[in-house]
Design brief:
The structure is a single chain. The chain has 502 residues and is α/β, with parallel strands linked by helices. The chain has 3 domains: 235 residues, 3-Layer(aba) Sandwich (Rossmann fold); 155 residues, Rossmann fold; 72 residues, no CATH class. The protein has 17 helices and 22 strands. Strands 6-9-10-3-11-12 form a 6-stranded mixed beta sheet, with helices on both faces. The protein has a 6-stranded mixed beta sheet with strand order 18-19-20-15-21-22, with helices on both faces. Strands 2-1-4-5 form a 4-stranded antiparallel beta sheet, covered by helices on one side. Bound molecules: adenosine-5'-triphosphate. Adenosine-5'-triphosphate (ATP) binds next to strand 2, helix 1 and helix 14. Adenosine-5'-triphosphate binds next to strand 2, helix 1 and helix 14.
């Protein structure tokens, strides 16, 4: 019989410091079989660190863990896997030039005499992928997949080990709604089978839908564990940020520039081979133009083309002048900034300091008349960004990879703010960012728009698009399906256009 609702894992008195910084203080957690247990906390609260201790990536400075009633102290990730724990990390860890099947079975391939049997693992992977209902081919190279598809491969990889405890760290942040539904049904099946799920997410609706239990963490400390049935989103947010939040979308600010009727950007017949088909739109100074579409609709490729990262045809006019944007430096020189959806590959130099990352796209703003770097100006900008975006870092000199995921996202935004862009492209700017920090980012978007920056906002979160945009373009199948003022749109019409049922 499947065992449910009894304790499988306990953590007690867990402490962990990085240098002088205490990331976890006397943290505790109790996980039950057959239930989804969500960890909730602001960016930098310590959720991922706790999961790394649980899965043998880090060792705790002190504290105790027990699994199935026995002392559990993994020294390496392999120990955690052997003990029945599997984790899907927030940042992807797949190898691009291997196939989906090879990635799923990396390190535990069915091999004979030491030879990896590619055909066999492809067959096994296909069976697994089908049983999970994933829209992916086992023989495809991972490098050819979208980020969403890669995330689904990560999930398949974690499940291929048949673990008793599955840890999902922000698994839906790059999934479309329909892909997230696939994941939710997988989770339901796993819990029915008596597996325990530890779930990390910043999406409150999703948390309320999926969770059985919710533990709130703040500043590395345990705050409270609540059953989903006995709490509300408002209560959870208040416990998490330590204050009440009455609104999440800041109102429009009054315009602080002289508006003209001129289009700051005009895109005509933009096409990218196999990715974008004849896209046309305009945007005025101070306007926030939202882009909605399901994964693969072509939104991010439009943005990459505009930023000179993809070869394209068609015309891009800036201030009524045709500009061939052949590479990113031409885009930057013409005042375009780009917060990419993939911060790890395109947004940050992870080993460089926050100061370097924040100033690197705007070096001319930080050089002296003699052409030398003006370090004190750089430092000032970095400190300002840390404060303005509430980046959890004790100094601008630390490496970007020591920040939590959500705080790294804020550094990418800070980097483009430093360029003082006239047009700012934001591709999923709040991915992995907690509710309090989302409000800070939305306020900055409002402020930029009030000062005349045109914003192109790509987001898979409909409430975010509806809450911020002046107009929304809906894309599907590589082209534009609908453009309308936000006041004329509702979620049903947008989804109808995105699924081409208009
Ligand atoms: N290797 C490291 N070196 C130094 N500091 C670290 C390291 N790893 C994590 N930290 C710090 O520990 C704190 C907790 O980070 P952690 O990644 O656990 O947060 P999180 O709750 O998962 O946040 P997010 O929601 O943004 O993913 C952060 O302040 C982070 O900067």
């Amino acid at each position: 019989m499947v065992q449910k609702n009894n304790v499988i894992l306990t953590l007690n008195g867990i402490n962990k410091s990085f240098g002088a910084f205490k990331a976890l203080k006397d943290m505790r957690l109790t996980i039950m079989r057959g239930r989804v247990h969500t960890l909730l906390g602001e960016n930098g609260a310590g959720k991922s660190t706790l999961m790394k201790i649980l899965t043998g990536v880090y060792s705790a400075d002190s504290g105790e863990m027990s699994l199935n009633g026995e002392k559990y102290s993994p020294s390496f990730p392999q120990d955690a896997v052997a003990a029945g724990l599997s984790i899907v990390f927030q940042e992807l860890s797949l190898v691009n030039n291997l196939t989906v099947a090879q990635n799923i079975y990396a390190n535990h391939e069915p091999s004979r005499f030491g030879f990896i049997n590619d055909r066999k693992i492809e067959k096994q992977a296909t069976t697994l992928i089908r049983s999970l209902g994933l829209p992916i081919n086992a023989a495809t190279k991972v490098g050819d997949l979208s980020i969403a598809q890669r995330q689904l491969v990560e999930i398949a990889k974690a499940l291929s080990r048949n673990a008793d405890i599955v840890i999902l760290d922000e698994p839906t942040s790059s999934l479309s709604d329909s892909e997230a539904e696939i994941l939710f049904s997988i989770i339901e099946k796993l819990t029915t089978d008596g597996k325990a799920i530890i779930y990390i997410s910043h999406r409150m609706e999703e948390i309320m839908r999926l969770s059985d239990d919710i533990t709130i963490m703040r500043d590395g400390e345990y705050i409270q564990t609540l059953a989903k049935t006995e709490t509300t989103i408002d209560q959870l947010i208040a416990l998490m940020v330590g204050r009440r939040m009455d609104q999440i979308y800041p109102p429009k600010l009054s315009v602080k520039f002289i508006p003209t009727n001129e289009n700051i950007l005009e895109v005509s017949h933009l096409s990218v081979a196999g990715k974008v088909n004849d896209v046309n739109f305009q945007v005025k100074a101070g306007e926030i133009l939202g882009f909605f579409g399901l994964v693969g609709a072509g939104r991010s490729d439009v943005m990459k083309a505009l930023f000179g990262m993809l070869p394209h045809s068609g015309e891009i006019k800036l201030h009524n002048k045709s500009i061939p944007i052949k590479n990113a430096s031409i885009a930057i020189n013409h005042g375009i900034g780009f917060v990419t959806e993939n911060r790890k590959e395109e947004g940050l130099v992870l080993l460089a300091s926050l100061r370097h990352n924040i100033t690197m796209a705007a070096l001319p703003h930080f050089t002296t008349t003699g052409g030398l770097m003006n370090m004190s100006k750089e430092k000032k900008q970095t400190d300002k960004a840390i404060e303005q975006l509430a980046i959890r870092a004790y100094s601008g000199e630390i490496a970007a990879n020591t920040l939590s995921g959500g705080n790294q996202q804020k550094v990418v935004l800070a980097k483009w703010l430093a360029t003082k862009p006239k047009i700012l492209i934001l591709d999923e700017p709040t991915r992995g960012v907690d509710v309090g920090a989302k409000f800070e980012i939305y306020s900055i978007i409002r402020e930029l728009s009030a000062n005349g920056t045109a914003i192109l906002l790509v987001s898979s979160e409909l409430p975010e698009l509806l809450g911020l945009s002046d107009r929304i373009i809906v894309m599907a199948g590589k082209s534009i399906q609908a453009t309308a003022n936000t006041t004329e749109l509702n979620p049903q019409r947008i989804m109808a256009a995105a699924t081409r049922q208009l």
